[in-house]
Design a protein that fits this description.
By secondary structure, the chain is of the alpha/beta class. It has helices at 49-62, 79-82, 125-137, 157-165, 181-194, 226-232, 245-253, 265-272, and strands at 34-41, 67-71, 90-91, 96-97, 99-100, 106-108, 144-150, 170-175, 199-204, 209-210, 217-218, 237-240. It has an eight-stranded mixed β-sheet with strand order 5-6-2-7-1-8-9-12, with helices on both faces. Strands 3-4 form a two-stranded antiparallel ribbon. Strand 8, helix 5 (181-194) and strand 9 (199-204) form a beta-alpha-beta unit. Helix 3 packs parallel to helix 4 (157-165). The protein is globular. The mean pLDDT is 89.
Length: 282
Amino acid sequence: MSENCNHDCSSCGEACASRDPKSFLEKPHAESSIRKVIGVVSGKGGVGKSMVSSLLAANFQKKGYHTAVMDADITGPSIPKAYGINEKATGDEHAIYPVISKSGIQVMSVNLLLEDATDPVIWRGPVIAGTVKQFWQDVVWKDVDYMFVDMPPGTGDVPLTVFQTIPVDGIVIVTSPQELVSMIVGKAVKMAQMMNIPIIGIIENMSYVECPDCGKAIEIFGKSHVDEVATQYHLPVLGRIPMTPSIAAASDAGAVEDLEGNWLDVAISAIEAIPENPDKVE
């Protein structure tokens, strides 16, 4: 605690031991209404986290909920591509406004602000983290039942910013079948535990290929270790997403909203069962 402390954490930037963790939470835009915030995380890149984020939002939208996706992967944004969004976000002196997908999903991504989607984002960590905070504070998210935050891989600035400043109701950890996954999932689990963020469970992506002739599941990456990892960390397995031509084609065509499948039914039920957060900042 600073010797000049006036016990008003809202006006202080120090991360002292006396600070209540809830005091780090930032309020969303005054015109925003967001009921639940779900983080989608992974300990490493290349496991299909953005695909899971976009699929979850699309499935909740089909169930009649109002959903949104905040693309917090600032240097590797891919959510607009998944939904086939090519238009740019707009704004005025009061706020920034998300782009609406064809099924009604509200989307904000740095790619919606760049002149060209292929322009690289060459920013340092604090600037990237500040951009994510702006997506929460300056964007008007209207009547959102479930917001999915697509996070960059790892445990760096952006996950830290999201966990500290946004009232996250829970996270889903996305992984793949390889044995290396135990260590990677462990990092994500331990960070969430250190930040007091509830972990909903694990989703395994690229879990298997289904034989077109006999329907047998073929584990092309070898035997899955997701059940062992889930048991190790006392977490449920929320779904296994196969590698199929339809998923790949939908992703390439920006048609993720058109995909049909029951791969995430358990995850959807688990997310729906999350109780209201009494610490939610409105």
